[in-house]
Amino acid sequence: METFFSKSDKIQHIIKSFTLTKTLFVSSIIIGEAHTGKKSLARYLFPDTPLVSGNNQKEVEEALEQNDELIITNFEKLSNQNSLDFTNKRIIATADYMGNPELIDDLFAFIYTMPSLQERPEDITYLKDLFIKEACSTLMIDENTCDSEHIPLNLTKNTKSLKRSVYIHVMKQSMHAQDIEEILYHYLLKHLDGNDAYREYLGLYEKPLIEAGLHKFGSQLQLSQVLGINRNTLRKKIHEHNID
């Protein structure tokens, strides 16, 4: 059975509404940004209901003929929504955007709006912790060694970008010198070119070295001593790399 977690009041309202209308043969659609959990929510509410994607008009039409209850994902991608007949059927659809508002009103008795992750801070925390556990398990990393408090979360594509940002952070935290060398090797192998490449790519090493040193020691004087360069040289490099 599909699991679904949310503390969002809006999503709880959707769940309650579906629960109240489960005995009725009426159709509903959940509309919201991609990767907000619309499909997971539909699967959670109707675990035994057949599911078909709007990417294939013919498959949807065939599924409608064979089933009185159906989940249709990617509803906005159907090439001919006008041909659909939902009479005496319960359809649960999901869509990334409204499309034709008049047609949506005709086909669906209930229209729900799925909030983005940015509108669901409690869900972000839950999903972040879930993805950290998943990433550590997949990459065989001790979860206790991972800094989970300072992950730069990317929510531009909801759960998709959130999960990616967590995985990248966990990978960075677990890397050793050899891993970093191999990453730089493959990056340079692909991009190395030009007539002044040494100077151009030197920043790949110098900039993070100086930024990390300033963050760690909080003093240009102390960092210059740690790096073994004079303070004026350090200031020059800070200026060259536009380091705040």
Automatic annotation (TrEMBL):
Pfam families, sorted: HTH_8
Cited Gene3D superfamilies: Homeodomain-like
Domain DNA binding HTH: 206-240
Protein name as annotated: Fis family transcriptional regulator
Organism for this UniProt entry: Sulfurovum xiamenensis
